[in-house]
Amino acid sequence: MTDAVVDLDVHLAAIVAGDTAAFAAFVAGAEPLLRRALRAFASAVDGEAVVQETLLRAWQVAARVVADGRPNGLLRWCLVCARNLAIDELRRARVAAAAEAELLARSERDVAAWVPPDPLLRERIGACREKLPRQPARALSARLEDAGVVADRVLAERVGMALNTFLQNITRARRLLAACLRRAGVFVGEEAV
Amino acid sequence: MKRDAEWALVAAASSAWRPRDRAGMVAPHPGFLDLGEAGRVRLHEVVEQLRVMEAGLDAEGLSATGRAVLGRVRGGGRP
Protein backbone atom coordinates (compact mmCIF):
# COMPACT_ATOMS: atom_id res chain seq x y z
CA MET A 1 0.00 0.00 0.00
CA THR A 2 1.09 3.57 -0.64
CA ASP A 3 2.80 5.41 2.21
CA ALA A 4 0.51 8.34 1.45
CA VAL A 5 -2.29 6.82 3.57
CA VAL A 6 -2.36 7.68 7.27
CA ASP A 7 -3.06 4.81 9.66
CA LEU A 8 -6.87 4.75 9.83
CA ASP A 9 -6.73 2.04 12.51
CA VAL A 10 -6.64 4.94 14.99
CA HIS A 11 -10.42 4.83 14.60
CA LEU A 12 -10.77 1.06 14.88
CA ALA A 13 -11.46 0.69 18.60
CA ALA A 14 -14.14 3.38 18.47
CA ILE A 15 -15.68 1.82 15.34
CA VAL A 16 -15.87 -1.55 17.12
CA ALA A 17 -17.59 0.22 20.01
CA GLY A 18 -20.24 1.51 17.59
CA ASP A 19 -19.00 5.10 17.22
CA THR A 20 -20.40 6.30 13.88
CA ALA A 21 -18.34 9.50 13.96
CA ALA A 22 -15.20 7.38 14.08
CA PHE A 23 -16.53 5.30 11.20
CA ALA A 24 -17.23 8.50 9.25
CA ALA A 25 -13.59 9.50 9.70
CA PHE A 26 -12.50 6.05 8.51
CA VAL A 27 -14.78 6.23 5.47
CA ALA A 28 -13.52 9.71 4.56
CA GLY A 29 -9.95 8.42 4.61
CA ALA A 30 -10.56 5.04 2.99
CA GLU A 31 -13.01 5.77 0.20
CA PRO A 32 -10.67 7.46 -2.31
CA LEU A 33 -8.13 4.63 -2.11
CA LEU A 34 -10.81 1.95 -2.40
CA ARG A 35 -12.18 3.67 -5.49
CA ARG A 36 -8.73 3.86 -7.03
CA ALA A 37 -8.21 0.15 -6.34
CA LEU A 38 -11.27 -0.54 -8.49
CA ARG A 39 -10.23 1.56 -11.47
CA ALA A 40 -8.66 -1.44 -13.20
CA PHE A 41 -12.03 -3.21 -13.16
CA ALA A 42 -14.05 -0.20 -14.36
CA SER A 43 -15.04 -1.62 -17.74
CA ALA A 44 -16.86 -4.52 -16.07
CA VAL A 45 -17.60 -3.50 -12.48
CA ASP A 46 -19.67 -0.64 -11.04
CA GLY A 47 -17.06 0.71 -8.63
CA GLU A 48 -19.61 2.81 -6.73
CA ALA A 49 -21.66 -0.26 -5.81
CA VAL A 50 -18.56 -2.17 -4.72
CA VAL A 51 -17.21 0.72 -2.63
CA GLN A 52 -20.52 1.10 -0.81
CA GLU A 53 -20.95 -2.64 -0.22
CA THR A 54 -17.36 -2.91 1.03
CA LEU A 55 -17.72 -0.06 3.51
CA LEU A 56 -21.03 -1.39 4.82
CA ARG A 57 -19.38 -4.77 5.41
CA ALA A 58 -16.43 -3.06 7.09
CA TRP A 59 -18.81 -1.56 9.67
CA GLN A 60 -20.19 -5.02 10.38
CA VAL A 61 -16.90 -6.93 10.59
CA ALA A 62 -14.56 -4.35 12.18
CA ALA A 63 -14.51 -6.28 15.46
CA ARG A 64 -13.05 -9.30 13.66
CA VAL A 65 -10.05 -7.46 12.19
CA VAL A 66 -6.98 -8.92 13.87
CA ALA A 67 -4.00 -6.67 14.57
CA ASP A 68 -0.90 -7.92 12.76
CA GLY A 69 1.57 -5.22 13.70
CA ARG A 70 1.12 -3.36 10.40
CA PRO A 71 -0.90 -0.16 9.96
CA ASN A 72 -4.31 0.06 8.31
CA GLY A 73 -5.61 -3.41 9.11
CA LEU A 74 -9.25 -2.42 8.45
CA LEU A 75 -8.36 -0.62 5.23
CA ARG A 76 -6.34 -3.62 4.03
CA TRP A 77 -9.36 -5.81 4.82
CA CYS A 78 -11.48 -3.42 2.75
CA LEU A 79 -9.10 -3.64 -0.21
CA VAL A 80 -9.27 -7.43 -0.17
CA CYS A 81 -13.06 -7.32 0.14
CA ALA A 82 -13.45 -4.80 -2.69
CA ARG A 83 -11.20 -6.77 -5.04
CA ASN A 84 -13.02 -10.01 -4.21
CA LEU A 85 -16.37 -8.37 -4.95
CA ALA A 86 -14.94 -7.06 -8.23
CA ILE A 87 -13.67 -10.52 -9.14
CA ASP A 88 -17.10 -11.99 -8.40
CA GLU A 89 -18.53 -9.54 -10.93
CA LEU A 90 -15.84 -10.44 -13.48
CA ARG A 91 -16.69 -14.11 -13.12
CA ARG A 92 -20.39 -13.40 -13.54
CA ALA A 93 -19.40 -11.60 -16.76
CA ARG A 94 -17.27 -14.65 -17.68
CA VAL A 95 -14.02 -12.70 -17.90
CA ALA A 96 -11.04 -15.03 -18.45
CA ALA A 97 -8.83 -15.97 -15.47
CA ALA A 98 -5.73 -14.52 -17.16
CA ALA A 99 -7.48 -11.19 -17.58
CA GLU A 100 -8.55 -11.39 -13.94
CA ALA A 101 -4.94 -11.79 -12.80
CA GLU A 102 -3.81 -8.84 -14.93
CA LEU A 103 -6.56 -6.63 -13.51
CA LEU A 104 -5.58 -7.55 -9.95
CA ALA A 105 -1.97 -6.64 -10.73
CA ARG A 106 -3.11 -3.31 -12.20
CA SER A 107 -5.21 -2.65 -9.12
CA GLU A 108 -2.19 -3.18 -6.89
CA ARG A 109 -0.10 -0.81 -9.02
CA ASP A 110 -2.88 1.80 -8.90
CA VAL A 111 -3.04 1.60 -5.10
CA ALA A 112 0.74 1.81 -4.75
CA ALA A 113 0.83 4.92 -6.96
CA TRP A 114 -2.19 6.66 -5.39
CA VAL A 115 -1.73 10.22 -4.14
CA PRO A 116 -4.24 11.87 -1.77
CA PRO A 117 -6.24 14.87 -3.01
CA ASP A 118 -4.56 18.25 -2.81
CA PRO A 119 -5.24 19.72 0.67
CA LEU A 120 -5.74 23.10 -1.04
CA LEU A 121 -8.94 21.71 -2.52
CA ARG A 122 -10.90 22.14 0.73
CA GLU A 123 -9.70 25.74 0.95
CA ARG A 124 -10.68 26.62 -2.61
CA ILE A 125 -13.77 24.59 -3.46
CA GLY A 126 -16.18 26.55 -1.25
CA ALA A 127 -15.44 29.71 -3.20
CA CYS A 128 -15.78 27.79 -6.47
CA ARG A 129 -19.17 26.51 -5.40
CA GLU A 130 -20.30 30.07 -4.66
CA LYS A 131 -19.53 30.97 -8.29
CA LEU A 132 -21.73 28.26 -9.79
CA PRO A 133 -24.72 29.44 -11.80
CA ARG A 134 -28.03 28.95 -10.01
CA GLN A 135 -29.34 25.83 -11.72
CA PRO A 136 -26.13 23.77 -11.56
CA ALA A 137 -25.76 24.85 -7.93
CA ARG A 138 -29.32 23.70 -7.15
CA ALA A 139 -28.80 20.34 -8.82
CA LEU A 140 -25.51 19.78 -7.01
CA SER A 141 -27.03 20.75 -3.66
CA ALA A 142 -29.92 18.36 -4.22
CA ARG A 143 -27.50 15.47 -4.76
CA LEU A 144 -25.31 16.40 -1.80
CA GLU A 145 -28.23 16.82 0.61
CA ASP A 146 -29.90 13.59 -0.46
CA ALA A 147 -26.71 11.50 -0.12
CA GLY A 148 -27.82 8.67 -2.36
CA VAL A 149 -31.16 7.95 -0.69
CA VAL A 150 -33.33 8.44 -3.78
CA ALA A 151 -32.78 8.23 -7.52
CA ASP A 152 -32.16 11.36 -9.58
CA ARG A 153 -35.65 11.37 -11.12
CA VAL A 154 -37.02 12.05 -7.61
CA LEU A 155 -34.42 14.76 -6.94
CA ALA A 156 -35.19 16.37 -10.29
CA GLU A 157 -38.89 16.52 -9.41
CA ARG A 158 -38.10 18.08 -6.05
CA VAL A 159 -36.14 20.93 -7.64
CA GLY A 160 -38.61 21.34 -10.49
CA MET A 161 -36.35 20.16 -13.30
CA ALA A 162 -36.85 17.60 -16.02
CA LEU A 163 -34.54 14.65 -15.41
CA ASN A 164 -32.36 15.38 -18.45
CA THR A 165 -32.03 19.03 -17.40
CA PHE A 166 -31.07 17.91 -13.89
CA LEU A 167 -28.36 15.63 -15.26
CA GLN A 168 -27.07 18.39 -17.56
CA ASN A 169 -26.84 20.71 -14.55
CA ILE A 170 -24.97 18.10 -12.50
CA THR A 171 -22.49 17.74 -15.35
CA ARG A 172 -22.14 21.50 -15.69
CA ALA A 173 -21.58 21.85 -11.94
CA ARG A 174 -18.84 19.21 -12.00
CA ARG A 175 -17.07 20.73 -15.00
CA LEU A 176 -17.33 24.30 -13.66
CA LEU A 177 -16.01 23.29 -10.25
CA ALA A 178 -13.10 21.41 -11.84
CA ALA A 179 -12.28 24.39 -14.09
CA CYS A 180 -12.47 26.82 -11.16
CA LEU A 181 -10.18 24.61 -9.08
CA ARG A 182 -7.71 24.32 -11.98
CA ARG A 183 -7.53 28.12 -12.17
CA ALA A 184 -6.78 28.08 -8.44
CA GLY A 185 -3.96 25.60 -9.02
CA VAL A 186 -5.83 22.52 -7.76
CA PHE A 187 -6.16 19.59 -10.16
CA VAL A 188 -8.92 17.06 -9.59
CA GLY A 189 -8.47 14.28 -12.09
CA GLU A 190 -8.53 14.62 -15.84
CA GLU A 191 -11.41 16.13 -17.75
CA ALA A 192 -13.47 12.97 -18.10
CA VAL A 193 -16.59 13.96 -19.99
CA MET B 1 -23.82 4.01 -28.42
CA LYS B 2 -24.52 7.61 -29.41
CA ARG B 3 -22.52 10.14 -27.42
CA ASP B 4 -25.65 11.91 -26.15
CA ALA B 5 -27.15 8.72 -24.79
CA GLU B 6 -23.86 7.71 -23.17
CA TRP B 7 -23.40 11.12 -21.59
CA ALA B 8 -26.81 10.93 -19.91
CA LEU B 9 -26.15 7.41 -18.60
CA VAL B 10 -22.77 8.47 -17.18
CA ALA B 11 -24.35 11.50 -15.52
CA ALA B 12 -27.15 9.39 -14.05
CA ALA B 13 -24.83 6.66 -12.78
CA SER B 14 -22.56 9.28 -11.20
CA SER B 15 -25.16 9.53 -8.42
CA ALA B 16 -24.43 7.75 -5.14
CA TRP B 17 -27.88 6.14 -5.31
CA ARG B 18 -27.69 2.42 -5.92
CA PRO B 19 -30.42 -0.23 -5.80
CA ARG B 20 -30.22 -3.36 -3.68
CA ASP B 21 -30.35 -6.86 -5.07
CA ARG B 22 -32.53 -9.61 -3.66
CA ALA B 23 -29.84 -10.56 -1.15
CA GLY B 24 -29.74 -6.97 0.12
CA MET B 25 -26.34 -6.23 -1.42
CA VAL B 26 -25.63 -2.90 -3.09
CA ALA B 27 -26.22 -3.49 -6.81
CA PRO B 28 -24.98 -1.75 -9.97
CA HIS B 29 -26.80 1.36 -11.18
CA PRO B 30 -29.19 0.52 -14.04
CA GLY B 31 -27.35 3.10 -16.17
CA PHE B 32 -24.06 1.25 -15.64
CA LEU B 33 -25.56 -1.91 -17.09
CA ASP B 34 -26.53 -0.02 -20.27
CA LEU B 35 -23.08 1.48 -20.81
CA GLY B 36 -20.43 -0.02 -23.06
CA GLU B 37 -16.91 -0.63 -21.79
CA ALA B 38 -15.61 2.80 -22.77
CA GLY B 39 -18.60 4.47 -21.13
CA ARG B 40 -18.02 2.52 -17.93
CA VAL B 41 -14.38 3.58 -17.79
CA ARG B 42 -15.45 7.19 -18.36
CA LEU B 43 -18.02 6.79 -15.57
CA HIS B 44 -15.31 5.69 -13.16
CA GLU B 45 -13.22 8.78 -14.00
CA VAL B 46 -16.23 11.08 -13.60
CA VAL B 47 -17.22 9.58 -10.26
CA GLU B 48 -13.65 9.68 -8.96
CA GLN B 49 -13.48 13.39 -9.77
CA LEU B 50 -16.95 14.14 -8.43
CA ARG B 51 -16.46 12.34 -5.12
CA VAL B 52 -13.22 14.19 -4.37
CA MET B 53 -15.02 17.49 -4.91
CA GLU B 54 -18.04 16.41 -2.85
CA ALA B 55 -15.76 15.43 0.02
CA GLY B 56 -14.07 18.82 -0.22
CA LEU B 57 -17.44 20.52 0.26
CA ASP B 58 -18.48 18.37 3.23
CA ALA B 59 -17.81 19.31 6.86
CA GLU B 60 -16.83 15.73 7.73
CA GLY B 61 -14.91 15.21 4.49
CA LEU B 62 -17.48 12.70 3.24
CA SER B 63 -18.43 12.37 -0.40
CA ALA B 64 -21.94 11.44 -1.46
CA THR B 65 -20.77 7.81 -1.24
CA GLY B 66 -19.60 8.33 2.33
CA ARG B 67 -22.89 10.03 3.19
CA ALA B 68 -24.85 7.18 1.62
CA VAL B 69 -22.95 4.60 3.67
CA LEU B 70 -23.17 6.57 6.92
CA GLY B 71 -26.85 7.13 6.27
CA ARG B 72 -27.44 3.39 6.25
CA VAL B 73 -25.19 2.85 9.28
CA ARG B 74 -26.79 5.65 11.34
CA GLY B 75 -30.25 4.60 10.27
CA GLY B 76 -29.97 1.54 12.50
CA GLY B 77 -30.84 -2.04 11.70
CA ARG B 78 -28.94 -3.96 9.03
CA PRO B 79 -27.13 -1.33 6.94
Descriptive key words:
heterodimer, A: mainly alpha, 9 helices, 66% helix, 0% strand, globular, B: 79 residues, mainly alpha
Brief rundown of the structure:
The complex is a heterodimer of chains A (193) and B (79). By secondary structure, chain A is mainly α.
The percentage helix of chain A is 55-70%
**In angstroms, what is the radius of gyration of chain A?**
19 Å
Structural class of chain A: mainly alpha
CA radius of gyration of chain B is 14 Å
The overall pLDDT average of chain B reads 91
Architecture overview:
The complex is a heterodimer of chains A (193) and B (79). By secondary structure, chain A is mainly alpha-helical. Helix content of chain A is 66%, strand content 0%. Chain A has nine helices and no strands. In chain A, helix 7 crosses helix 8. Chain A starts with 11 loop residues before the first helix and ends in a 10-residue tail after the last helix. In chain A, 38% of the residues are buried. The mean pLDDT of chain A is 93. With 79 residues, chain B is mainly alpha-helical. In chain B, helix 1 crosses helix 3. Chain B starts with a helix and ends in a 5-residue tail after the last helix. The interface between A and B is large, with 56 and 54 residues.
Task: Set down the secondary structure blueprint.
The complex is a heterodimer of chains A (193) and B (79).
Chain A lengths: L11 H5 L3 H18 L9 H15 L11 H20 L4 H17 L6 H11 L3 H13 L5 H7 L4 H21 L10
Helix pairs in contact in A: 2-3, 2-5, 3-4, 4-5, 6-9, 7-8, 7-9, 8-9
Chain B lengths: L2 H11 L16 H5 L2 H21 L6 H11 L5
Helix pairs in contact in B: 1-3
